[in-house]
């Protein structure tokens, strides 16, 4: 993910999960949000207007709720869904975020949210239409352990100043923290 965002040459970068739980045309809604002026636009499975075509298994659903609670330990904002696999951002903002991001695994989404907060970027959540897939690579037990470990890493790195960015790195409309 990091290499792709850092190599992007367009004005906007967008990405989705490999299991294709979201129809590709949903990316248009995110792109519109970026064009309206948001730095980052993310899908949210918890948005009041979200439609679930195929529900996730009970274990994944409960796991997702636990993840949302745990991310509250790291993030200041109360986001409905950090793990939704549909995100878009201005390319310059993406380069700022991913040049400082350290997490390569399941918790990279939470780190993106943490850096959006740290760099005082704007973020907007939009509803999605989700069709949960059996092709998912999520293993609740394994990924829960890794997520908790990475949440503590993100929190520690933030406290140690390891996410500090030079003010010259900030895109013109972003505000240096």
TrEMBL record:
<protein>
    <submittedName>
        <fullName>Unannotated protein</fullName>
    </submittedName>
</protein>
<dbReference type="InterPro" id="IPR029044">
    <property type="entry name" value="Nucleotide-diphossugar_trans"/>
</dbReference>
<dbReference type="InterPro" id="IPR001173">
    <property type="entry name" value="Glyco_trans_2-like"/>
</dbReference>
<dbReference type="Pfam" id="PF00535">
    <property type="entry name" value="Glycos_transf_2"/>
</dbReference>
<feature type="domain" description="Glycosyltransferase 2-like">
    <location>
        <begin position="2"/>
        <end position="90"/>
    </location>
</feature>
<dbReference type="GO" id="GO:0006487">
    <property type="term" value="P:protein N-linked glycosylation"/>
</dbReference>
């Amino acid at each position: 993910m990091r290499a792709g965002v850092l190599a992007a040459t367009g004005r906007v970068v967008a990405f989705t999960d490999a299991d294709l739980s979201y129809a590709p045309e949903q990316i248009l809604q995110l792109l519109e949000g970026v064009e309206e002026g948001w730095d980052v636009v993310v899908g949210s499975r918890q948005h009041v207007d979200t439609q679930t075509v195929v529900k996730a298994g009970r274990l994944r659903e409960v796991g997702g709720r636990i993840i949302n609670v745990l991310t509250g330990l790291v993030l200041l904002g109360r986001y409905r869904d950090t793990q939704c696999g549909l995100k878009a951002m201005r390319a310059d903002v993406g380069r700022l975020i991913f040049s400082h991001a350290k997490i390569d695994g399941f918790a990279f989404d939470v780190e993106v949210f943490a850096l959006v907060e740290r760099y005082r970027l704007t973020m907007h959540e939009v509803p999605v239409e989700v069709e949960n897939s059996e092709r998912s690579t999520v293993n609740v037990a394994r990924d829960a352990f890794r997520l908790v470990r990475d949440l503590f890493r993100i929190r520690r790195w933030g406290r140690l100043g390891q996410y500090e960015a030079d003010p010259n790195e900030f895109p013109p409309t972003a505000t240096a923290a």
